[in-house]
Design goal:
Elements (H helix, E strand, L loop, with lengths): L3 E5 L4 H12 L3 E5 L7 H11 L4 E3 L6 H10 L4 E4 L6 H6 L1 H21 L4 E7 L22 H19 L4 E7 L1 E3 L18 H9 L6 E4 L11 E2 L1 E3 H13 L4 E7 L5 E2 H12 L5 E4 L14 H6 L8 H14 L7
Parallel strand pairs: 1-2, 1-4, 2-3, 4-5, 5-6, 6-11, 7-10, 8-13
Antiparallel strand pairs: 9-12
Helix pairs in contact: 1-2, 1-8, 3-5, 5-6, 7-9, 7-11, 9-11
The structure holds nicotinamide-adenine-dinucleotide and UDP-4-deoxy-4-formamido-beta-L-arabinopyranose.
């Protein structure tokens, strides 16, 4: 099976961990990333951890000429498409930038893939396409209804992929809906390095534990959940990375969609307590109002991926947070330290 995989957004958080697993499995990797939300140091870390050097192409996917050059220079056999903008709040403030970047990048990629007769694609979708879910845990067949421009770009790209695959039987597309990816490589030398104030819970909690920020704000303790705080399906980034390899190995004609989650929920207070246990540090917090757009609970039904991809996410919350803490404590200021 190994061949040459183009990993768009491969310098980013999930992409870099996936590159590690691909290289370890014997694939050649070409990373295409404009470094708008990542660092070239992540590519160096991938090489150090695996002993294999991925090719690195600094390109903006919205520039079709530049991306075309990547297809000219490398004999790409399949693509994993992570590149894109992902901050929910930013997407509400700058919708056009989100629609333009995420959609145009994907149009360019699909065009070039067809032109170069590359028809295998794994795409990073998100549980955010379900919006406020009608049933829990959430199966792939549940109603979709994203509540922000970022989520709508994901659902639009899914629809585009379904139409493209329906029009030409050579396409084999796997749409992966991630739940809440957290954690880091167990070496502590590759992890999530958000720019500015983290939007997501775990990076924020880690920055409080390491002393970079004073206090976590818990967005509501009056949700309809066992302890009143929000419940999510956190998944270790390496389990997620391995899900991409499973998706590539099991890719089938047409376009199929899979939830990648554990099916197990953890609350904000569970994350705080477990972080305190694994780090030995106190995590100071205050309960504040709910964050606009939040939901009480998000939980995957991962049974389709378990059955069809022969893949299961089994790393526990303790392992996720211990690995995140190792990364944060070894690199308090991310790749710059
Ligand atoms: P990330 O920001 O760390 O990685 C995305 C990478 O894409 C970055 O390295 C960035 O520099 C690059 N990029 C952005 N725009 C680009 C462009 N126009 N051209 C080239 N490169 C570009 O994010 P991540 O958390 O690793 O997420 C990867 C993918 O997974 C994204 O598509 C995201 O929407 C999706 N996803 C993430 C989560 C999450 O919670 N992290 C959840 C569900 C889905
Ligand atoms: C988790 C829980 C918050 C921060 C987001 C995107 C989603 C996907 C994953 C890309 C919630 C609470 C958080 C804080 C808190 N990304 N929280 N204080 O909202 O489930 O999902 O990331 O596709 O699209 O919406 O993740 O990590 O932001 O929040 O109390 O400072 O932590 O209310 O209950 P979320 P999150």
């Amino acid at each position: 099976m190994p061949g040459t995989i183009l990993v768009t957004g491969g310098a980013g958080y999930i992409g870099s961990h996936t590159c590690v697993r691909l290289l370890e499995r014997g694939f050649e990797v070409v990373v295409a990333d404009d470094l708008s939300n990542s660092s070239a140091a992540a590519v160096d870390a991938i090489a150090r951890l695996t002993g294999c050097q991925p090719s690195f192409e600094q390109v903006d996917l919205t520039d079709i000429e530049a991306l075309g050059g990547v297809f000219e220079r490398h004999a790409i056999e399949a693509v994993i498409h992570f590149a894109g903008l992902k901050a929910v709040g930013e997407s509400v403030a700058e919708p056009l930038r989100y629609y333009r970047t995420n959609l145009l990048s994907t149009f360019n990629l699909l065009d070039l893939m067809a032109r170069h007769e590359v028809f295998d694609l794994v795409f990073s979708s998100s549980a955010t396409v379900y919006g406020d879910p009608e049933q829990l845990p959430i199966p792939e067949g549940a109603a979709t209804g994203p509540t922000n421009p970022y989520g709508r770009t994901k659902l639009m790209i899914e629809d585009i992929c379904r139409d493209v695959a329906a029009a030409d039987p050579r396409w084999r597309i796997s749409l992966l809906r991630y739940f809440n990816p957290v954690g880091a490589h167990p070496s502590g030398d590759l992890g999530e390095d958000p720019r500015g104030v983290p939007n997501n819970l775990v990076p924020f909690v880690m920055q409080v534990a390491v002393g970079r920020r004073d206090q976590l704000r818990v967005f509501g303790a009056d949700w309809d959940t066992p302890d009143g705080s929000g419940v999510r399906d956190y998944i270790h980034v390496l389990d997620l990375a391995e899900g991409h390899l499973a998706a590539l190995e099991h890719i089938d004609a047409g376009c199929d969609v899979f939830n990648l989650g554990t099916g197990v929920g953890a609350s904000v207070f569970d994350v705080i307590k477990t972080t305190e246990n694994v780090s030995g540090k106190a995590v100071s917090y205050e309960v504040v109002d709910r964050r606009p757009g939040d939901i009480a609970t998000s939980l995957a039904d991962p049974s389709k991926a378990i059955r069809d991809l022969e893949w299961r996410a089994d790393r526990s919350l303790e392992v996720m947070l211990a690995d995140a803490w190792r990364w944060q404590s070894r690199h308090p200021n991310g790749f710059d330290s």
